[in-house]
Amino acid sequence: MTSIKRAAGSAFPAIDLPVLGGGRRSLATARDGFDWMLTIVYRGKHCPLCTAYLKELNGALADLTALGVDVLAVSADSQARASAHMADVAPEFDVAYGLTVAQMQELGLYISGPGNGTDVEGPFAEPGLFVINDAGTLQIVDISNVPFARPELARIVKGIGFLKGRTGDAPINGTHA
Questions:
Q1: Is 37 in contact with 131 (CB distance < 8 Å)?
Q2: pLDDT tens digits, residue range 122-168?
Q3: One Pfam annotation, family name (predicted)?
């Protein structure tokens, strides 16, 4: 499957998905009380490295909240699989589910088929990390084709703190034409 990579500095797509516990969330819109958004795409229940990363995210949540950053994790898993997976993670952040192949492509993610994992329901997204600023613009983007090449969350927290601490608008890296 091919995807067009999402460009830093572009508007982030307002994909709306159901979340565990009820309701729906946009992958691009922070909840009231927050001005930036961190959207983490994880592979799904079948991925033990994703489980560890989401548990790390729990540990970084207080620092992200203090910076005014809302957090949402999302996968292609069904509601039942996402619920079973989150019983192990015990997330303190919202978890969306049901990401479609078309939505994965819109986000610019690498997509793998059932042969790339055991105990999967169908095609799934490889990891992605998106930081959307208060203007709805993609400030930071990191996508990978494997679960073991992800940015360290502690560095992401420090980087967001640095960017938000700048006076005026923080420049978006990687946008020189």
A1: yes
A2: 899 999 999 999 999 999 999 999 999 999 999 999 999 999 988 66
A3: AhpC-TSA
Q: Any long-range contacts for 148-153 (C-beta under 8 Å, 24+ apart)?
A: 148/49, 150/53, 153/53, 153/56, 153/57, 153/59, 153/60
Domains, the chain, in order of start with CATH, read 36-164 (3.40.30.10)
Q: Determine the Cα–Cα distance for residues 56 and 33; give it in Å rounded to an integer.
A: 23
